[in-house]
Structures are given as structure tokens and as C-alpha cells.
Amino acid sequence: MRYDSQTHHRRSIRLKDYDYSLAGAYFVTVCACGRQCLFGEIADGTMRLNRLGTIVQSCWHDLPTHYPHLGLDAFVVMPNHVHGIIVLTDSENLGVRPGLRVGAGSSVGAGLHVGAGLSPAPTPTGVKRHGLPELVRAFKAFSTRRINELWDTSGQSVWQRNYYEHIIRSEKSLDAIRQYIEANPTNWSFDLENPANIPANPR
Question: DSSP code of 84?
Fold first, then answer.
């Protein structure tokens, strides 16, 4: 499937009955509640994180310390959303590895296939690999708790309830998504999540 930033950025392509704990690479987008620009601002094509943005970035990069079968690839915090690539594999402690390659013979270890679920290696007996929904929930929960501590609030929503995800099925798609993530700050003025691009409600 060709990567389409408008399609994959705006809606979930979640597959019915698909097992999102299968080894593979996944592109996710998580948006701030109400599309509020909470995490910083874009200046001269560069994302400048504020304290909330720094918390969000830290919580994302900390995920592999809680989930040993998770690896992180390209990632960006935007003013009101994040984009990232999550890699699930049978290998432990992948951590944060920019330039991570996926597919047969890749550097992430044997058994990882782009297009998770097409030909996945079995998870070793007794090893628990958490699914994508749980990982996204954990990221939201960790960052929300820390932001509420900073705000001195309790139970304040930070993220939208849903998120967008796309199963990465080829090296070509992986490279296109990496480029999209890297270029996101530069393209903020055209971004569909930019409040300036959301039509005002008609009176």
C-alpha cells in the first residue's frame, strides 16, 4: 500500500480481527485532546518543545524500559500530536534505534517481517509481547500522569481517546513514513492537524 499522509494521518486503518501484538512495524499518530497546541511551537521549520513537549518525548523514549520487545524508530513531537514508528519483535531490549531497519535479514533480529502477520515468527513460549493498543495506552497514561503532576491537576485529559495506526508492509513504505515524520515540522503550515488549517464553524 502506498503511503498517503492525508489518509493515514486522519483516520485509523485498523483491521478487523487483526492481532496487533504480532511482530512487525507500525506507524502511529496520537493527537492532543481538542487539537490543543500543548507541546511547543514550530519556528523556522523546527519544533521547539516546551516543558510538556519534553515530557511527551521522554515518555515515548522510555517505553522500551517497560516493554522489552518494543523498539522505537523515527519519532517527532508536534505542537498538538506525535508521530512515531513502533517495532514489535521477538528480540528483547531493542530500545531507541534511529535508522532501524525491518525485514528479512534486518538489524532488529530474526523473525521480524514488514507487514506483520503475513509471515511472523512465533513468540517464544513464556514470552509476553504486548500489543500496539496497550503500548499506546501506556504512552498516554505515563505522559498524562506526569503532565497532570506539572499542572497540579488530577484526571485532566491530554490526549484524544483514539489514535491512528498503519501496519508497515514494505521497506519502501517504511522509508516513505520515515521521511514524512522527519519533514513534519517543515510542513506544519500545511498540516491537517494545524489549527490554522481547520475551517471555522459556520454561524
Answer: E
Phi-psi region of 70 (alpha: psi -120 to 50; beta: other; left: phi over 0): beta
Buried b / exposed e along 22-42 (16+ C-beta atoms within 10 A): bbbbbbbbbbbeeeebbbbeb
pLDDT digits (tens, 9 = 90+) for 132-172: 999 999 999 999 999 999 999 999 999 999 999 999 999 99
Task: Tell me the residue type at 102.
Answer: V
Whether the Cβ atoms of residue 160 and residue 137 lie closer than 8 Å to each other: no
Q: Express as a percent the part of the chain with pLDDT over 90.
A: 62
| Residues 150/39, Cβ–Cβ less than 8 Å | no
Residues 6+ apart with CB under 8 A from 202: none
Q: 123 near 90, Cβ under 8 Å?
A: yes
All structural domains of the chain: 5-186 (3.30.70.1290)
All three cell numbers of 46: 523546527
Buried/exposed code over 106-133 (b: 16+ C-beta within 10 A; e: otherwise)? bebeebbbbbbbeebeebeeeeebbebe
Residue 160 to residue 27: CA distance in whole angstroms: 17
H or E element, residue 189 = none
> pLDDT digit string (tens) for 75-119?
999 999 999 999 998 765 544 444 444 333 333 333 334 444 333
